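G., the chain you wanted modeled:
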Amino acid sequence: MFKNLRFKFRAFILFFTVVFAVSCVPVKKLSYINDVKELQAPYINPKEHKLISPFDKIYVKVYSIDEKTNLLFGSNENMSSTSSAGMIGYLVDEAGDISFPFVGKIHLTGLSTSEAAAKINESLNEYVPTSAAVVRFIENSVSVLGEVLRQGTYTFTQDKITIYDALSLGGGMTQYGKRKGIVLIRQEGDKIMHHTLDLSDSRIAEKEYYYIQANDIIIVEPLRWASVQSFSNFYSIILSSVSVLLTIALTFKLI
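Predicted structure as tokens:
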């Protein structure tokens, strides 16, 4: 009887060892970049300015040597929205315009922030000849989902951020995140496009989608090891329960 019991116990130990070995994730799959030592020259990927689009929120500040002008254009009246950071924001409507005090509609779609500032200055010239406008994006957001520590939608003030910046907003990838299977969802015109990114390849730095834009969605797909881990956790619980039962049985000579 004891010989048979020892055989069963060894079988359980062997089963547990195999499951544990299978559930381990190789270090290569946990690394963001696996070919760093192979890099011979830096990749070139110029960071282009984001252009203003409908439904963007922009911050506009008018500076002047005239204090009354500063008070006038710094007030909350006629503003389309207010950002969470406390900056006064204008919402670009579906036609690509903002409604600016005294000037009325100003079309800004397709312009960079510096070009938009120049156009606002030009529109203000007949009212405030000695003024300067500053334009910035506010409330840009990116959604990070899947195998990251903190899923959610995060805001940023830069024109663009890198894929690594975006993932860090969500606390980074978990050990079960698929580095070679990052899905980027982006609206391009009237189309919703899906792109697959490989973070283990250093050449991602020269790709178009290395830079994340406002309203992008990033989904980190799980490795197949994630399901294996769940499987092994389940059987680990069973094994622990059986071990306890065997200990009790041997102690009280039930078998």
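The first strand starts at residue 57 and ends at 64.

Shout if anything looks off.
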